Amino acid sequence: MSIIADHLSYIYSAGTAYEVKALNDVSFKIEDGEYVGLLGHTGSGKSTLVQVLDGLLKASEGTVYVDGEDIFDKDYPLKSLRSKVGIVFQYPEYQLFEADVFSDVCFGPANLGLERSEVELRAYEALKQVGLRDEAFYQSPFDLSGGEKRRVAIAGVLAMKPKVLILDEPTAGLDPAGRKWILELVARLRKENGMTIILVSHSMDDLAENAERLMVMDKGHIAMDGRPKEVFRYHKELFEMGLDIPEVVKVLYMLRENGVNVNTDAITVREAAEEIRKAIRPA
Amino acid sequence: MFGTDRTEEQKLSPKVTDEGNMLRDITLGQYYPADSVIHKLDPRVKITGTFLYIISLFLVRDIWGYAVALAFLASMIFISKVPVSYMVRGLKGILFILLFTAAFNIFFTPGEVIWSFWKIHATREGLRIAIRMVIRLIFLVMGTSIMTLTTTPNQLTDGLEKVLRPLRHIGVPVHEVAMMMSIALSFIPILIEELDKIMKAQSARGADFESKKLSVRMKSMVPVLVPLFVSAFRRAGDLANAMEARCYHGGEGRTRMKPLRYVKRDLLAYLILLIYLALVILAGILF
Ligand SMILES: Nc1ncnc2c1ncn2[C@@H]1O[C@H](COP(=O)(O)OP(=O)(O)OP(=O)(O)O)[C@@H](O)[C@H]1O
Ligand SMILES: [Mg+2]
Q1: Which atom of ligand 1 sits closest to the CA of residue A48?
Q2: pLDDT tens digits, residue range A84-126?
Q3: Is residue A23 within 8 Å of residue A52, measured between CB atoms?
């Protein structure tokens, strides 16, 4: 399921005193099964972009092709888009509303018009996938802890079985264990279900290890697009955009500046340790 | 630098929401930023001015009076630098009332019949009254919108608090009411933003807000209203705690960070208001 953004622009409150050009001529192609990290300083247009990709905001200019079809065509059934592209919003736990967890997760698939048995099967699978404890299935979602609420909210989207999963800052407000858990879940979904992933984040560390491609947004356009190690080479430019590079990569660059001849292409802690060992004690 | 949310200031700033959003037409409390004398006036002047203008509309009897009122309104709109389209937008909300008033007056005022159909008679007197009422209403709404468009909700409540201050003596909790108003006003854009977010999240889960069937649309409001209320209560609780933590204890002995003070232009504005009132009354006597 490829997604093509074709010269997208988006203007909030067009024609008023509060006009904001949130997207400015954005184009790219995301292939089936890719894991894309979308980075950018606050207000750079990340959330706007993912909402346009899911047809929730209509592009002011340009269009989006999902599977080769123009989603803003007036004959395009937006309902079918919902089963293709799923989006988990920032703080998704605030969208829970049902009396119990299980019914809440059923909401999405039921809206797709599936059989009742299929809806329940999907809800059950999704809740299992996010690893919610069984006792919680029939509790009120408002009685769960923050982390559990988020799992339920994510299950609510997974139950629609999208081929492309977009997550807008899914780790915001979670503790390190919660972050790790989310990132592992996403990596697993991609590996086991072959989903295409678009993960929005401020944090380089979140993305460095998982994403195979980074798109960096700045003031409404895509400033960089490439593999993580390529992007990190432009750490000065990133810094000017209000972004940072992962701590380990920073260490490598510092060593380099201080005369240690180390390869700076490592991204994960393990790779970095290996490169440093090689630099200090060549085999 | 990282992970910072939007600042409180930005969150509180009013936002016109998206296309397709039914909330677009709420102009109440929608401040239009511009650099004009009217924007800079003390809110008390604007409140008193609006009040006097409304009264003047009811003193007006003939075409000359209306001409003066129109000239005054037009110059205020011009000076305020707010596009006329914004003023007119406020009228959309009262379109029904306008039509109803007009029809009611035209058909139910006794007098010389100028047109009839079946049992309904339109009269000349009725037509005259109708035109007068409609003009009055339009002037009234536009006059009030000048105030709301050029004054931030916070300034407005500050001004109101000051203007209504004397009512304290008869036991009206003026400060508390003003505080409630300003909180309510600053919550409106926040809740609109929240509503917008929740509606998007639920439509991403396939909720259908655009269905032709009323029953489907009504049912689709549940997934929106429940989270909205939950979040409104949560925010209200947070705010109450924050106020408590900063020792808020009502109006007694509380001073302002930015006290309202009259400057020369405010006095000038009062003078102009008086001249306007005199003109309206004069027009009534002379012609
Ligand atoms: N509903 C809205 N109405 C008007 N302007 C908006 C609205 N939502 C966002 N904006 C503006 O559009 C721009 C892009 O916002 P967006 O939410 O897409 O940024 P972001 O990259 O997701 O930021 P963050 O990291 O803070 O979530 C910002 O300048 C923002 O103030
Ligand atoms: Mg965002």
Answers
A1: 18
A2: 999 999 988 888 999 999 999 999 999 999 999 999 999 999 9
A3: yes
